[in-house]
Each structure stands twice: as C-alpha cells, then as structure tokens.
Amino acid sequence: MRKDSAGTGSRPRGLRAALAVSAVGLLAVVGAVVLPGNASAASTLGASAAERGGRYFGTAVAANKLNDSAYATILNREFNQVTAENEMKIDALQPQQGQFTYGTADRIVQHARSRGMQVRGHTLAWHSQQPGWMQNMSGSTLRTAMLNHVTQVATHFRGQIAWWDVVNEAFADGSSGARRDSNLQRTGNDWIEAAFRAARQADPNAQLCYNDYNIDNWTDAKTQAVYRMVQDFKNRGVPIDCVGLQSHFTGGSNYPSNYRTTLSSFAALGVDVHITELDIRNAPTDAYRNVVNDCLAVARCKGITVWGIRDSDSWRSNESPLLFDGGGNKKPAYDAVLTALNNGTPGTGNPTTPPTTPPGGTGCTATMTPGQVWGDRYNTSVTVSGASTWSVVVAITSPQKISSTWSGNPTWDSSGNVMTMRSNGSGNTFGFTTMMNGNSSARPQIRSCTAG
Ligand code: 9MR
C-alpha cells in the first residue's frame, strides 16, 4: 500500500505539507483554516444530519406525488433518506398469492438511490395491510407464506435497502406488555425471530430492525416488553441490528421527557436506534428540537425520518404535524430542527471501535481500521472486500476535516464532510488523514460501499 507523504510522519503537518496532497484535500484544509466558528452550517436537513456523524434526515414518500414538482423539489433538496409510505407493504407487493408487483416500489427506490438517498424498507411482516388472501390464512400455511414473502421481497431488493423494518407493530398497547394478537402471532411466538432469520438470509448486508409505535416512553409496559425481546434476541443470536421508534406524537401521544433514556437504553443492548415515522401534533418547535437533540446525544441513533413532507401529505393532516405547510413553506419547526442539527454535537460512542458493516450501497463491504493518532490528527484505513472496483462513501464530523488521502480517487460533497472514494487500481485498501480541529473524539463513519 502506497501512502503519500502527508499525514504519515510523526511531526505535525502544516499548510505546506497539505500543498502536496490532492487539490480537494487542500480545499478542505484551507476551509478549516480561514473560516472561523460554525463555518459549515448546512442549509438543508439531510446535509446537516450527514455532518452529525453521518446521520440521515429522511421522509416518508408516496410514489404518486413524485410527479408533483413542489413535492419533489423539497424531497430532493432536503432529505437524504426515504421510506415508502405504503408501496412496500405486503398488500402492495403481493396482492395475489405468488404474484409480486414491484413497479411502484422500484420507482421510489430508484428515485432515492439515484440521488444518493438511503432507503428504509417498510415493512416485511405486519398484522396490518395484508392482502385478502393472507388475512384469511392461519397456522403453518400462513407461517410459510409470511416467510416466503420475506424471502422474495428481501431478495428482490437485495443490496438496495439500508434498513428493513422486518417486523412492524407486534406488541399490544396498554399495560399488558404482551404480544399483539394477530393471525401471525397465532402461528407461534417465534414468528418474529423466524422473519428476522429469513431476512438475514435473503439480504445479508441490510440492517434488520424491529419497528413500533408507543415505545417512546421508557416506563411504558410496551417499551419494556420490546426492550426485553431485543435483549433476548441479542442473547440468543437472533439477527437484529436496530430498533425503529415510530414516534408518532400525534393523536394524543406526546413527546416523553425520558425519550433520550429510551434511545440510549435500546442502544446499550448493542443495536442502532432509528426514529422512523416522526410527526408531532401542531409541530411545536420545542418538541421537534428535543427529538433532534436526543438523537444527536445517542451515538447509535442513526437518523430521523419524518412521516411526510408537507402537512397536506400527512396521514393526520388535520393536526398539521410536519415541517412544511401545505404550500411547501418551511414552518418554525423546520427552522428549529435545522438549527438543532447544525448546533448539535453528536454523541461519539467509543472512537476506537471499528465501525460496523456499512448500511448502504451494494456489492461490497468496507471495513474501517483506526490508524495512528497524533495530537492534532489521526489516520484511518479502509479495506474493501467483495469487489475490485468500488466506491466507498465516508462521512466526517465537522469541524474535523480530511486533509490527505492515499490509494484512491476522492470526490467531495459541497460540505466537504462527505467523501466518495473510488478505486484507482492501487488495491483494495485506501486511507486518509483527518485533522481534529478541536474535536478529538469523533471518528469517520462508512456510509456505503458500492461495487463497480
Ligand atoms: O401513512 C400511512 C397511511 O397512508 C396508510 O393509510 C396507513 C395504513 O395502515 O399506514 C400509514 O402508515 C403507518 C405506517 O405504515 C406504520 N406506522 C403507522 C403509520 C401511520 O398510520
């Protein structure tokens, strides 16, 4: 592996050394030198979230609105993650048994991925929105059909979905802490883990989530019950990577003051947490700000998805719970969210822990290895497996800046904090030096690895 001179020696590097590195790396260094304070304050939700440790800010999307130019303009400008609001549900993808209709879902996935947005798959197994033929099934016939659906759908989208909601809403409301009664539950208590195992087998690189609503308040019986299930799955090696908190603070359910405890408690089990369907009645600025700050405070909180773009797009439009009004104008809640993101200090977790499987991309896996650390900077190397030509997206936490790279061709987004490194024929390991610029704890995050 060849390294260029910058960043590999033991004495601190100055601007002079930076001149030896790529022009883009130079720009990054100069930017860090001449622009004081919060120089990189992002102007969109997705860009700002990406700067906070490679997080995402996403939205639910309805395919039939993609041709609405006002809608698509906001979507494409603000968000770097999407969830299909209805198009990847069971009734949409398998309306007749054995007949799969992927066209509309594919359109959403294509729209997102062609613009660099990550996709959440929602949802493989659920008691609701089952097609008629499935609603009428029970027992082993239903179990087999459910697992076949999981396998077929996860296989169809393999490599394109960053996170699957493998199972949605399987716990009962109220104080029982019990599973929700449903035709799926009546096939046996192990239906959830069976679905996770099938999903892992079909799409091994996707992150697999359990997703539910009313699991936001740490002391609620439902929250505790889901927590115990995830703990049990981790103890027994059932493949689960993440928990999605829908966080519909609509319809009478409020933001709880112990929300951050809930996020960090799930995270402490060794799973990522995602806020998957956020909307808040009347869009109060303080509650939206609190949700953002709580997510930023928990290193394993990977991002926030709002359940629609404009109030008029919301499933509860009468509550005006979203960040844009019906005319597509930014509401005060939008400003509160963007400011909280821009001001946020992301939780960093343990910086020496090598990052995990990248959540996005397809056809390869990138593994990050921490390198030498100096007082003002540190090195990182990334090894790609599964492909000989590839591109790997790496996100840096501002004010840190990558100052030099080796063994790859880097390009950068407008913030300078997201680098796409393409193979340049010099092998499957590339590296880079990151200037800490006052933040010594944050470490890079791999966002995706894409073959070809
Ligand atoms: O927003 C969705 C709405 O358009 C559908 O009619 C409804 C049908 O079940 O599902 C809504 O989305 C739900 C999501 O899939 C799961 N969590 C609750 C969401 C709001 O009901």
From TrEMBL:
Keywords assigned: Carbohydrate metabolism, Glycosidase, Hydrolase, Polysaccharide degradation, Signal, Xylan degradation
UniProt keyword annotation of Signal present: yes
Domain CBM2, residue spans: 357-452
PROSITE patterns xref list: CBM2, GH10_1, GH10_2
Keyword Ion transport: no
Active site (catalytic residues): 277
Origin species: Micromonospora rosaria
A Pfam family the protein falls into: Glyco_hydro_10
GO biological process, alphabetically ordered: xylan catabolic process
Protein's name according to its UniProt entry: Beta-xylanase
Documented EC number(s): 3.2.1.8
InterPro entries membership: CBD2, CBM2/CBM3_carb-bd_dom_sf, CBM2_carb-bd_dom_sf, GH, GH10, GH10_AS, GH10_dom
Broad class of enzyme this protein falls into: hydrolase
Region entry Disordered, spans: 343-362
